[in-house]
Specification:
The complex is a heterodimer of chains A (699) and B (160). Chain A is an alpha+beta fold. Chain A contains 16 helices and 26 strands. In chain A, the strands form 6 sheets. In chain A, strands 3-7-1-14-11-12-13 form a 7-stranded mixed beta sheet, sandwiched between helices. Chain A has a 6-stranded mixed beta sheet with strand order 9-17-16-15-10-26. Chain B has 160 residues and is α+β, with helices and mostly antiparallel strands. In chain B, α3 packs across α6 and α5 packs across α6. The termini of chain B are far apart. Classes of the chains: A alpha+beta (699), B alpha+beta (160). Chain B: This is 2Fe-2S iron-sulfur cluster-binding protein.
Chain lengths: 699, 160
């Protein structure tokens, strides 16, 4: 039944009068050294906690990376938590917080990503295949371009927070809105210096997270745990929405330089790609992002010779984190926009050029990965082109775009893109991890599923119930997904939408099939457990760029059609068409709905200004709005040769930005190279063209 | 300051600071926690309530302004036939917004279908633009609103 909101307690509902409230006092400068802190006189029931007061481990750990729970004296980014002020009266805390003064020596700042120094490079990967220098020498044309993408926030509606209380075992019970409860448990246990078994993490109801609550939730849980540990009283930490948008981990900004040599026919001969990503002050997941960005940098095109240099750079920005695609978004935006320039240089249409250069079945991707299943990129491109009437529209709009000085009527454009999506983590970060799901068929015929994977949405939970019900031939309503609590469920790893669909769904299937086999031989209840471990052999090796990076890869192509007023630069989307090959589709309706909602999100984030502290201080709204005008969305799934379910949710974020940028560029006869494509960036491009034309006329 | 108003059909009275936000009164003083609060700036739509039949963001309403007014929250709306029109419609088409934002959206949908003879797509898009959670398929949501309208029309409620 749909009443999913009934009797749901979200993290913001866990506050009750009498609990200790925690206020985070943040750094007000992007970099520097704390030279002094002046405090007002604190009442007896108010306390303060700094870095040195943390009982045991002072860092938060995510895989092999760490960051200080509170500022250790060196400010790394504006908004970095410095102190925890706690008490029971929120208004009193607000007044006291405003009276705390932190003094800084502000000569310690890092350069930006554009002007970084070698000391700022956190990790660098280099890959080379073939003989790029020789191929560049014999190339018919060489095209060089630079693309940039800005940081993006998840804009998950629900606030981030945690609540803590002392439990009967003398440890702590934490309620944490997290996608990764066992990571929260481990961090809380380490920061308090108590055994893991004394820490219990309970996950409340959550709204859609968009991967925004992957590891940052652990930080807030540690704050609540530390305060409760010190005071022996229940505590509650909820961060304001503006703080969440400004300071919690978002998508890493990037600058990607492409240099490509093509032959007389437009075929790629060689590519050189230089990538910089802004990992922010604390590069927690940048290893994964850099691996994925390298994997997808050259797109899905055959490339005889290739060199890639990718680096993550420490800056004074808030830490970047997990976001749909974790690197695929940035590299496909740059790669697909560049593909359009290559097509133009070759005198071919974008569709024609793509079909000529895309990887054929069983041929390796440029990065050296060999697909085990046939790749249907040609078919995807044909499908999406036919759905959208791409060829006719492209010809018509190209002709119209040539009339540059015609300001009568709106300018239409159309863009196409193609991409892939890897599901799960690909780096070595997870190689020692083991993820488990268990299921129990009870005497009343009902099934209970035990997993710490938090369903990203109601659809995923519904899918799991349907699959389990289908295998065991029971009513899906009799399938219960047990509350996520670390003392009751096994560790199923971090919950990402694509991971839930691929790894967790398969584990649920395996559990149910095992129960099915033994249900008439063994007495009820029957409980089985199935685990997944990344393959030790033939796993992805980021040093040699070889092996199998993902359990399954999904593929997609999209077309976006836009209409822009050449005077006001107001833009609307006329339609989005998307074709996907993403393995076995469990429920087409749900899959389409998921992709459609991600398409809308992607359109919003591709056209919305990134949040900035200056906007927040001016009181300018930071939350996104839905497009005012609806647009047609059509989605098709190709029948796949893959019999496992693949992820779908990240495809729109890899496809839409480049196709949208191309459509806008085509309509106004400009070349957009930055994301987001705001009306301001359209104006800057038009201004640049106008200045160039004036200079040419003067000359 | 003592303020009397109607909350979910019952006359209530509260002695509080006049500038206290309606959302805080609803959640803290009356314990109606299903009405959510996320942004505190009237942008996200999660704290939507009905004030004299109009939808408003409760985080932007100082409590003194609701004196003698009628407030309906999702708790008061649940269980009514109007609520079932909407829930059944979304259930039938398997459109499932996230539980955090849906409470606000339900009240907004109710207000929309009560005030429009036939809500067109732009009306529904305008509604969605006031609710910044992009958790669900827009076309499914539009379909859900239309079906809710038909459910209510079928019951004869709209003719009254």
């Amino acid at each position: 039944m749909l009443d999913t909101h009934k009797n749901k307690r979200f993290i913001c509902d866990y506050y009750s009068p009498g609990m200790i409230i925690i206020k985070i006092i943040r750094a007000e400068v992007p970099g520097g050294i704390i030279s002094g802190i002046s405090m007002p006189e604190l009442p007896a029931d108010v306390g303060i906690i700094g870095f040195e007061d943390i009982p045991a481990e002072k860092d938060l750990h995510v895989f092999s990376r760490s960051m200080p729970l509170l500022c250790d004296g060196n400010i790394k980014y504006e908004g970095e938590p410095v102190l925890l002020l706690y008490g029971k009266d929120e208004k009193e805390l607000d007044i006291l917080a405003s009276e705390i003064r932190i003094d800084y020596e502000t000569d310690y700042t890092l350069a930006s990503m554009e002007t970084y120094t070698e000391e700022q490079v956190d990790r660098e990967l280099k890959y080379s295949r073939g003989k790029p220098d020789r191929n560049f020498a014999k190339a018919h044309k060489i095209i060089e371009e630079t693309y940039s993408t800005s940081s993006q926030h998840h804009y998950d509606l629900e606030p981030q927070g945690a609540a803590a209380m002392i439990n009967e075992a003398g440890g702590v019970d934490i309620t944490s809105a997290t996608q990764w409860p066992f990571n929260v448990r481990d961090n809380v246990s380490e920061c308090l210096g108590i055994p893991k078994k004394k820490v219990n993490i309970d996950v409340p109801a959550m709204g859609k997270t968009h991967s925004g609550k992957l590891w940052y939730a652990g930080l807030l849980a540690c704050y609540a745990a530390i305060v409760t540990w010190k005071t022996n009283e229940p505590s509650f930490c909820l961060i304001p929405k503006t703080d969440s948008i400004l300071y919690t981990p978002g998508r890493a900004a990037s600058i990607i330089r492409h240099k490509t040599g093509i032959d007389e026919n437009g075929k790629i001969l060689c590519r050189s790609i230089d990538i910089s990503i802004d990992s922010g002050a604390c590069p927690m997941l940048s290893e994964e992002v850099i691996n994925r960005i390298c994997f997808s940098a050259a797109g899905v095109y055959m490339t005889p010779a290739l060199e890639i240099t990718a680096r993550s750079i420490r800056t004074n920005n808030p830490p970047s984190g997990a976001f749909n695609g974790m690197g695929f978004h940035q590299s496909f935006f740059a790669g697909e926009c560049h593909a359009n320039s290559l097509a133009a240089a070759a005198g071919l249409g974008p569709l024609e050029w793509r079909k000529m250069n895309t990887a054929r079945k069983h041929i390796n991707l440029p990065i050296g990965w060999e697909s085990r299943k046939p790749i249907q990129l040609d078919k995807l491109l044909d499908t999406v082109a036919e759905m959208s009437d791409y060829k006719r529209k492209h010809a018509a709009y190209s002709l119209s775009a040539k009339m540059q000085n015609d300001f009568s009527g709106k300018k239409r454009g159309i863009g196409i893109s193609v991409c892939c999506q890897g599901n799960g983590f690909m780096g070595k970060v997870e190689e020692n991890e083991k993820y488990t799901v268990s299921a129990r068929l009870d005497t009343d015929g009902s099934l209970s599923l035990f997993t710490s994977a938090v369903p990203e949405n109601f659809q995923t939970a519904s899918l799991w119930r349907d699959i389990a019900g289908g295998i065991l031939e029971i009513n899906p309503d009799d399938v219960r997904i047990e509350t996520v609590n670390t003392s009751l469920v096994p560790d199923s790893g971090p919950s990402l939408f694509s991971r839930n669909i691929t790894i967790i769904t398969q584990l649920i299937e395996k559990c149910c099939n095992a129960i099915k086999k033994s249900r008439f031989r063994l007495p009820l209840p029957i409980e089985v457990k199935r685990s997944y471990r990344l393959p030790r052999t033939n796993g992805w090796d980021p040093e040699s760029f070889s092996g199998n990076p993902f359990p399954i890869v999904s593929w997609g192509a999209a077309v976006v059609e836009t209409e822009t007023d050449p005077i006001t630069l107001e833009t609307s989307i006329r339609g989005v068409w998307l074709a996907a090959d993403c393995g076995k589709i469990m429920n087409i309706e749900l899959a389409k709905a998921e992709i459609e909602s991600e398409i809308f999100r992607s359109v919003i984030s591709s056209t919305m200004k990134p949040p900035a502290v200056k906007y927040a201080r001016l009181g300018i709204p930071l939350t996104p709005v839905q497009p005012q005008n609806p647009f047609a969305v059509r989605i098709e799934f190709l029948s796949s040769r893959e019999n496992k379910p693949g992820g779908i949710g990240e495809l729109p974020d890899s496809l839409i930005p480049a196709a949208l940028s191309e459509a806008l560029s085509m309509g106004l006869n400009i070349k957009l190279a930055d994301l987001p494509s705001t009306s301001e960036s359209l104006f800057r491009q038009l201004e640049h063209i106008s200045n160039t034309q004036e200079t040419e006329l003067e000359d | 300051m003592k303020i009397d108003f109607s909350l979910n059909g019952k006359k209530v009275s509260i002695d509080t600071l006049p500038e206290k936000r309606l959302i805080d009164v609803i959640r803290e003083d009356f314990g109606l926690m299903t009405t959510k609060n996320a942004c505190y700036s009237g942008e996200c739509g999660s704290c939507t309530v009905q004030l004299e039949g109009r939808i408003v963001p409760a985080c932007q309403i100082p409590i003194f302004t609701v004196r003698a007014k009628r407030i309906v929250t999702i708790e008061g709306f649940m269980g009514t036939e109007k609520y079932l029109d909407i829930i059944n419609a979304f259930n039938d088409i398997k459109c499932i917004p996230c539980p955090f934002c849906f409470t606000g959206k339900i009240l907004a949908v109710d207000s929309l279908i009560d005030n429009h003879r036939t809500p067109d797509t732009s009306d529904i898009m305008a509604l969605l633009s006031d609710h910044s959670c992009s958790c669900t398929s827009v076309s499914k949501f539009i379909e859900g609103v239309r079906m809710a309208y038909h459910n209510r029309e079928f019951r004869g409620e709209l003719l009254k």
